[in-house]
Design brief:
57 residues; mainly alpha; 0% strand; Sec-independent protein translocase protein TatA
Length: 57
């Protein structure tokens, strides 16, 4: 499922309409922090699984 430029532009347009230009940077920053925390958490889980499989080998 690939998102193209048109879909991203449409999402940004509706976000501007919904939240306004002043609130949008705050929402983007919060979304970025959330995504970063999610990636770090999943990386930690994957690293733990790899360590367990290496111990069993």
């Amino acid at each position: 499922m690939n998102i193209g430029f048109g879909e991203i532009a449409l999402i940004v347009f509706f976000a501007l309409l919904l939240f306004g230009p002043k609130k949008l940077p705050e929402l983007g920053q919060a979304a970025g922090k959330t995504l970063r925390e999610f990636k770090n958490a999943t990386k930690g889980i994957i690293d733990d699984d790899e360590q367990k499989t290496q111990k069993h080998d």
